[in-house]
Amino acid sequence: MKSSYFLVLALLIVLMTACEKKEDPVPDLPTEDEAARDALYSIMKTYYLWYKDMPSVKKEDYADPYELLEAMRYRKLDRWSYIQTYKDFLDQVSATFVGHGIRIGLDQNNKTRIAQIYNKSPMYDLGVRRGWIIKKLNGTELAPIFISGDGAAYNALIGKSEAGITNTFLFETPEGKDSTITTTKATFTLNTVLLYDTLHLKTGITGHLVFEQFVEPSKAELETAFAYFQANNVKDLIVDLRYNGGGNLTVLQSLAAHIAGSSKYGEPFLTLSHNDLNIARDKTYTFATVASSVASKKMVVITTRSTGSASEDLINGLKPFMEITTIGDTTNGKPVGMYGFKHKELYYYWPISFELLNTLGQGDFYDGFAPKKYVMDDITHDWNDRGEYCLKEAIYYLENGSVSSKGEYQYRRATQFDEGNSKPNNLYLIENN
Question: Which residue, 137, 156, 265, 300, shows the most beta carbons closer than 10 Å to its own?
């Protein structure tokens, strides 16, 4: 009897336990970084030009989108896909810059010089120009840092890209005098047309344009430059793209139209070709309609390894329509572009998403465009100085129809550093709305 009682009690306990309602476990919500990582994974699997060639990965093995992108990148060809913060994206499209607004380089005599300066830089109003020698920065000699190529040491010395940071430069002016300038980093809108002027050559009036990047504010600057060229009856062009790493496709359309002339407005210029999941996105871009143009038949482009993406496609896209010669160094070699994918107000993802072809179906220039003649970037002279090696060679070519004798310049690539928050290089940007 006693054993029966315990058996019934045990059964009741089992039944009560079985009927007891269990709370659903609280799911582990992804962190912000994990959600951002997962969003990138989906984008790469769909829009990445080389999605079939990506390494196979388990996304959960990576903590954030930066790590995942490096794991998924098709390393054989992709040197460009990147991630930027949402704020950096807004600054880039508005051409907002924080810093001194300079690029510094090492010349052939191992002296550090200003290689580039924006005209809204805090130092520009103080008279500093391309070619000025910098002996010291904050009391430290710069040349040894550049000779060793120590970018980390340079960044530490010049400081973060924050308004209010002050640095002291010891310059040697073009007159050979020492000049100490203390200046504070500031936020300003950069100019992308660094110079435009005309050169009166044996062959006629030539327009000379130094252009630094393709961003939306560039359209107004380019219109001003080409209105000047048109008013001065410019025949040929020298376009200096030595530091131009690319940018926005619509700005490229405009510049191409300024150069090619009104007869080309609306004609095919470049075609975007996507992976087999996005064939519907394939699109042909035409020459834009612009107010001023020169209908140039001959153009010399000054290039370096920093000349990439939209700059290269200006060359490739115009080749079927005019004679183009490059002087300087082989270009970067980026015949592809990227869409921008916004993730909340945290990130913009820029995976390589398409390749570009000109009207003859030509593209695939991963080795870059080799110049007609290798000429070193001469940072000892300002842009409009006819003694500057690249400009001098470009003028020689237009006036003689050939490059000058070989060996006139000792050629080498020299170290140059931008400031810490400089724009990413070699971009071809289309925001994915």
Answer: 300
Tell me the C-alpha to C-alpha distance, in Å, between residue 86 and each of 247, 282, 340. Answer: 17, 27, 11
Give the closest residue to 416 by CA, choosing from 298, 292, 318, 329: 329
Query: Closest Cα to residue 57, out of 48, 69, 75, 46?
Result: 69
Amino acid at 158: I
The continuous run of DSSP H or E covering 397 comes out as helix 389-400
Strand pairing category for 140-141 and 427-431? unpaired
Q: Which whole-number Å values give the CA distances from 269 to 283, 313, 371, in the listed order?
A: 11, 10, 23
Contact 292, 219 (CB under 8 A): no
Task: Find all residues with CB under 8 Å of 237, minimum gap 6, and list them.
Answer: 206, 207, 208, 209, 229, 259, 294, 296, 298, 299, 300
| pLDDT for 423 | 44
Residue 6: predicted pLDDT: 44
Domain range list for the chain? 32-78, 99-183, 193-431
CATH architecture of the domain 193-431 equals Alpha-Beta Complex (3.90)
Beta bridge partners of 341: 349
pLDDT digits (tens, 9 = 90+) for 292-306: 999 999 999 999 999
Phi-psi sector, 401: left (phi>0), alpha (psi -120 to 50), beta: left
With cut-offs at 50, 70 and 90, classify the pLDDT of residue 13. very low
CA dist., res. 119 & res. 128, Å (int): 10
Contacts of 233 (CB under 8 A, 6+ apart): 205
Q: Please state, as a whole number, how many other Cβ atoms lie within 10 Å of the Cβ of residue 91.
A: 17
Query: Tell me, what amino acid is at 320?
Result: P
CATH class, range 99-183: mainly beta
The length of the chain in residues reads 433
CA distance 188 to 97: 5
- Which residues lie across from 427 on neighbouring strands? 246
Measure CA 420 to chain center.
Answer: 14
Flag whether the pTM goes above 0.90. Answer: no
Other Cβ atoms closer than 10 A to 370: 13
369 Cβ partners below 8 Å, 6+ apart? 303, 312, 315, 316, 326, 330, 331
Angle between helices 218-231 and 249-260 (to 10 degrees): 0
C-alpha R_g of the chain: 28
Query: Quick one: which of 239, 235, 278, 273 has its CA closest to 256?
Result: 239
